[in-house]
Amino acid sequence: MARRVNYIKAFKAKFGGVPTLLVDSGNLFAEQRTKHGDTRLDGVMKNESLLKAYDQFRVDVANLAASDMDYLAPLLQSSAFAKRSEAQPIFKRLVSANLVAEAPDAVKLPAFLLREVPLAHSAKAVRVAFVGIADASSPMMATGVKIADPIETAKRVLPEARRNADVVIVLARVRTDMAARLAKEVPGINVIIAGNGEMFMPSFKIGDTLITFTPFESRFVGELRFYQAAPGGYTFRDRFISLDEGVSDDPGAVQMTKEAKEAKENAYKNAQKLLTDWLGNASVLSDWKSIVAQAKPGAAPEYISSGACAQCHTDQYVKWANSQHARASDVLSAHKDDFEEGCMQCHATGSRPGALPKLATVQCEQCHGAGSQHAAKPAQGYGKISDMKAACASCHTPQTSPNFDYQAAWLRMKH
User: Fold this and answer.
1) Considering only Cβ atoms within 10 Å of each terminal Cβ, which end of the chain, N or C, has fewer?
2) Angle between helix 150-164 and 176-185 (nearest 10)
3) Cα–Cα distance, 237 to 17 (Å, whole number)
4) C-alpha–C-alpha distance, residues 197 and 39, integer Å
């Protein structure tokens, strides 16, 4: 990034009258996932640093790939998106014609974005439309998001983009064969900038459409130059610029990279300390007798541990003690770099906002509710679960437990 920023600055210094736009064809965000499929802590830090960089070193349009939705989908809720857009304008420069979040309050991303490019020799600016396309065959773990067919979407969107622009560019995170199909089957595209994940791919033309490619990773920057030909027409020339030692680092970008690295390392340290401190203080058993003795009628019940339940429900306790639920916190140490407070909701008992649970593992009360009032005055009705399958599904989701079989699990733990 530091070299790319400096190259663009050098270009502008040498060709001051030539306007520039920087765009991204997709696959912006880190695909670093936890065992459960969520974005890992270091991935979150990288993604947030990337969003900051795309504002500080302006990226004019960024297309979204299917993989980007794993991180972005939760941020597409209208309230969250509005808040982020106000603080980080890059959210207003994201484009996708065929990635659709299905939640009722989800933001609909623009199918294309218009950019006006001023020309030194003309009072009229050139209008460029950037259409965003993602490949429908790409794997996507994000739930609540669908990918519409790229060809059909492009056929629907291109006429409007064409009416509003002098030049139409499709930013596409697609395979090479899909880029070729777009050029063949969708009229009106001037250029397709395709991110196909290959190291080097020479550009080629199909009809009047130039298909050029995004360089592999970030060791190169793709440069696409526009030359005005006949009135209203343009020719194009593209190349890869190697960001080797011949291009010096931009000091501001170097500083941002340093800060991003420090933020990630601090996040690791904080996560590991949080886990270590919690494991040192959490217990499978509590001093339940004193809690029960102090329970006042009508007061909010407190968690008292499975040890209290064992006094009356011995058979159920023995079954629990020999289950994976009784060891649910043990696996956290092996994933200390992924740890966050949210893990406690399914790996501990008694999670509450703003406070870490005092009880380790998944105990009886995690499903049946805090039991101090019941232990103080036992009676029927406590802990009844109206929908056991739904209760299990709150933690055993397709992401966290892809092979979870409710019927088989219930037979093992039925009590």
Assistant:
1) C
2) 50
3) 18
4) 21
